[in-house]
# Entry
Amino acid sequence: MWRLRESTHPVLTDEGGAILDERTGRWTHLTPTASAAVMLLLAGATEEEAAGQYATRYGIGVEQATTDVRTVAAALTAQGLATTDPVSRRWWGWWR
# Structure
């Protein structure tokens, strides 16, 4: 499952967005369509489900939507802002 890393802080709207990487202090700015793709992915949808919703939202074909969503996910993963690794549980937090 695709997700943002713990050290990132997204600010996402329909007009665009940005993701702060607290490790580097750098902001990555997103276009409105990239922000929508990230919001759909973060909503727990698989890439295929997110692409279907993206296609409906923008009135484009599913193939193009799939390409767009995968491009955004791959770009953020390549920048170290996102991952497909499972969520790791901290062992010291088991008593909370």
About this structure: The two ends are 25 Å apart (CA to CA). The chain has a mean pLDDT of 90.
